[in-house]
Amino acid sequence: MATITLHRERLRYNFERLDYLFKTKYIHWSVVTKILCGNELFLKEILALNPAQVCDSRVSNLKVIKKLNPEMETIYIKPTPARSVSSVVKYADISMNTNIETIKSLSEEAVKQEKIHKIIIMIELGELREGVMREDVLNFYKEVFELPNIKVVGLGANLSCLFGVLPNTDKLIQLCLYKQLIEATFNKMIPYVSGGSSVTIPLIFKKMLPTGINHFRVGETLYQGTDVYKDEISNLLKQDVFTLQAEIIELIEKPMVPDGDFGTNLEGESYQIKENLIGKTSFRAILDLGILDLDRVNIFPKDESIGYFGSSSDMIILDLGENNQNYKVGDLLDFSINYMGALRAMNSNYIEKRVV
């Protein structure tokens, strides 16, 4: 069985440096836990760091977090589905919303559960994912402020996740100005301007982050040690918080070109013969994981001499060339994995999870 490993000290190193950065800038931040897919073993490692908040896009994951630590403040970070209103109120202290009818339902449910449910209203800033259109913001807030058992604690925006629209000073200043406009119009205090995510962190170092942005939601930079803005590693943080190991279940020297009549493979792709490889052979290693578990473009062999040959639903086939490392059946190969690779691996029931 393949294994995804969380390296505790690398995670703690990144958390402490991010926590110090945000505290020096008087910024609140929430750890995004959706990559952990509700895994109790790994969630315990996050909660042991004592974050102020955690946020997730799955109610089932928030339920696990509340089971492990009922006092932890939780945020549901996508618009609430109508059929999940009851559990969102139960397991999320705060939710991010864009639909007035949904917020009315949250209000009714909060009254039933005798709770005050906090909300952050998301505003559209050009990424075209979730967000109230800017021309509708004031009327939207007016309706929300009238609802019982609902407390507006912020406004926010999502950038970079869908089309890769990068945050910049202009867009973030717009968000801060909406806060000022709402507070002045309705005589209400809005604590959070949640305009920050992993991709926004580099703006802090460039001194381009407006001072009004005081809430971040951070996942990828914590777990991957990346500068998401430039799509490169950060020299200030540790990489390989997650690593992957997979076992070689077959290793045989085989031709480099398939033989026979070609149709399409299970992904609908047609193989194109490379004539320069006809008659050549290489050592081929089959791993005990496949497309069902993750996409090969998200994993990177530690041994850079290893090449990729192909994948099927539950096997990945690697090209070991002449096998100068003398790999054999039963050996474990080590891989770095990116954010999407870790997310897919965490979501697979066929990959073991462990902490070192």
UniProtKB/TrEMBL annotation:
Cofactor(s) required for function per UniProt: pyridoxal 5'-phosphate
GO (cellular component) term, any one: cytosol
Organism listed in the record: Halpernia frigidisoli
Molecular function, one GO term: pyridoxal phosphate binding
Domain Alanine racemase N-terminal: 49-225
Superkingdom, taxonomy of origin: Bacteria
Name of the molecule in the record: Predicted amino acid racemase
Keywords, alphabetical: Isomerase, Pyridoxal phosphate
A Pfam family recorded for this sequence: Ala_racemase_N
